[in-house]
Amino acid sequence: MADATDLVAEIEALEAKLAEAKAAITKRFIGQERVVDLTLSALLCGGHGLLIGLPGLGKTRLVETLSTVMGLDGNRVQFTPDLMPADILGSEVLETGADGSRAFKFIPGPIFCQLLMADEINRASPRTQSALLQAMQEKVVTVAGETRALTAPFHVLATQNPIEQEGTYPLPEAQLDRFLVQIDVSYPDRQTERDILLATTGVAEEEAHQVFTPEALIAAQQLLRRMPVGDSVVEMILDLVRAFRPGDPSSSERVRETVAWGPGPRAAQALMLTVRARALLQGRLAPAPEDVLDMAKPVLVHRMALSFSARARGEDLGAIIDSVTETLLHSEAAA
């Protein structure tokens, strides 16, 4: 009983700290609470986030603010077509000592940080994009045959321009799967845009202040994994993920006709973590079915692909996910 009481007290203390962090972020990144919640969820789960939106919507500002508020050592890499893997990971150079001796010395790249902003990641070539694969999954990098550990915590927040724009390369499926959530950054509404104008075009702007430390963030990530998840939520996660696999008996006819391949077990793992994060950010002690439904699209949309015929018909993955989750909600309610 004491353990349960301690867990509740720890969760409540973390919820208060998260509320303070969110307030600090939204002073500089105005009016996009959904985007802030999803980005904080990615950090709380120990994962990475992919922010997708047109230029000028504040994606870079958000990541810079997060770095300050969460107390993380951050670096920014502007991805361009001529960027090379060594520009991210680092490289060995031949160094001559004072006595004339020569030895190779490793010069760390910007990836050796706690929060890496990969700006416009889809403007780099696939070879350079793949330089992040090992780091994102295993938290290590291998250069010149030697494996080097990255500083904990390590997170990648990548921004991506919509793929319709010229000069972009689609991210490979293996890399997309390593992003915990896809975060769509849309245009602000009129009132929000008015608030942005007034807040950012005056003599002074709001400054972010530090709320977390790296150690506090690691402790929060560990606490999140201790949050209880009810059997009904676990079953709902399994039902949802399996419903989007075309070869699964539980999938609908629409999914079999439109989806080329569906989400794997990593998607179910991501949902198990993100529903806890959403409950934390909303001040609750355990996730509920509505958390699963709310996190379905950010977790699943980049882990699926439309078939060729579905793309030709102009089908939309987001609409398909909404339709299936709505059907699942009704079936759960009926049961």
UniProtKB/TrEMBL annotation:
<dbReference type="InterPro" id="IPR011703">
    <property type="entry name" value="ATPase_AAA-3"/>
</dbReference>
<dbReference type="Pfam" id="PF17863">
    <property type="entry name" value="AAA_lid_2"/>
</dbReference>
<feature type="domain" description="ChlI/MoxR AAA lid">
    <location>
        <begin position="253"/>
        <end position="322"/>
    </location>
</feature>
<dbReference type="InterPro" id="IPR041628">
    <property type="entry name" value="ChlI/MoxR_AAA_lid"/>
</dbReference>
<feature type="domain" description="ATPase AAA-3">
    <location>
        <begin position="48"/>
        <end position="181"/>
    </location>
</feature>
<dbReference type="Pfam" id="PF07726">
    <property type="entry name" value="AAA_3"/>
</dbReference>
<protein>
    <submittedName>
        <fullName>MoxR family ATPase</fullName>
    </submittedName>
</protein>
<dbReference type="InterPro" id="IPR027417">
    <property type="entry name" value="P-loop_NTPase"/>
</dbReference>
<dbReference type="InterPro" id="IPR050764">
    <property type="entry name" value="CbbQ/NirQ/NorQ/GpvN"/>
</dbReference>
